[in-house]
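Late entry, D-malate complex.
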Amino acid sequence: MLRRSLLAVIAAPVLSAMALLAPAGAQAQGAYPNRTITVVVPFAAGGPTDTVTRLVAESMSRDLGQTVVVENVGGAGGTLGAARVAQARPDGYYLLLHHIGMGTTPSLYRKLSYDAVGGFEPVAMVTEVPMTIIGRKNLPANNLQELVALVRQERQKLNYANAGIGAASHLCGLLFQKAVDAPMTTVPYRGTGPAMTDLIGGTVDLMCDQTTNTTEHIRAGAVKVFAVTTPERLASLPEVPTAKEAGLPGMDVTIWHALYAPKGTPAEVVNRLSRAVQAALRDEKVVARFADLGTAPVTQEQATPAATRAFWQADIAKWRPVIEAAGEYAD
Ligand code: MLT
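Prediction complete; structure with ligand written out below:
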């Protein structure tokens, strides 16, 4: 239902309790931080958000002098993990690293157990990641033109994996179906990490997913790649055509990621975390790994609370009319 509506709209030029249990002894004592910090990834382990988060968390832990652990809370298009953080104690020890879903969820989901806009303090943007259109390796199509013909012929007999409504893979899949002008069958997962396992195993046909999850599988020949969703080819996958040059204009999609703390987290804690993200984004190891996976850190100026808030609010404002025009929601 939602898919049908968004298909129409995306034709536009674009496109617990556990948190309440916050880590024991949550009252900060002494200088922040003085104990382990947890970053929630609202998708399954092994996927693109998880990959970005683990790289940044490891580097942040060196800057902060404390362990930064990652907790995967997948499900419901990222809203389960986001809810845990929004409802957590605002002390800087329980954080969220989320993507474009922070821009779409406030409009897509009208019934949430948390405040999808007012429940968070933005800390720092991290990266923007291109996407790739990929398929199982024995799919009977060897380039984007052949894939388009196959989708138009097989339609709902073909299925595509995604990480739930509002997930990056969901939005990109809708855009692809709109561009091809043929529907397919959706198979939702708790994240594109497990979806990738099934794609490699051949139990699903297609996926549109971030290069941070697809690059190595493409290079290994474990999946077929048909296009990247950027205006220019990627240095990390130079042989892969853009969707535009392969015949599908309008598929210009990148997925932004940022770190958030619960609303009410003291400004000095938010600023300390922001500086730690900035240090991670200057870390040569992080920069090199990002480049290998087809992405790059945002600028130091973008990785501030104010710039992140402005970007996030602009993204909410961009998506709200699109989703409201569709008139159908995830709830
Ligand atoms: C993930 O980490 O699994 C992805 O970011 C899911 C998605 O949004 O497609």
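Residues 1-28 have pLDDT under 50 and may be disordered. Will revisit in the morning.
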